[in-house]
């Protein structure tokens, strides 16, 4: 079963409080998404560490309910 964009956004915001999150359904199939996450807690972290933080917030749904997620992460300007 696929996840909704709203569910993905909620999980990320719960895992990364204060983050700005924008989710795009890339194919309109509810299975391939892009997430743009801006979070102060990414400060000083490598891109890999930032992505790991986002994946952790998804609580094991990556690869199951959530098939594909393209990530763009950054700190606020």
From TrEMBL:
Protein's name according to its UniProt entry: ATP-binding protein
Q: Which InterPro entries match?
A: BolA, BolA-like_sf, BolA/IbaG_stress_morph_reg
The record's Pfam families line, in alphabetical order, gives: BolA (PF01722)
* TM region positions: none
The highest taxon in the source lineage is Bacteria
GO molecular function, a single term: ATP binding
Keywords from the named record: ATP-binding, Nucleotide-binding
Keyword set includes ATP-binding: yes
Q: Which residues form the signal peptide?
A: none
Family statement: Belongs to the BolA/IbaG family.
């Amino acid at each position: 079963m696929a996840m909704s964009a709203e569910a993905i956004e909620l999980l990320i915001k719960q895992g990364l409080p204060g983050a700005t999150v924008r989710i795009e359904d890339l194919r309109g199939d509810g299975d391939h998404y892009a997430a743009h996450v801006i979070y102060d807690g990414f400060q000083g972290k490598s891109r890999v560490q930032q992505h790991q933080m986002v994946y952790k917030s998804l609580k094991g749904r990556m690869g199951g309910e959530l098939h594909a997620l393209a990530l763009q992460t950054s700190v606020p300007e």
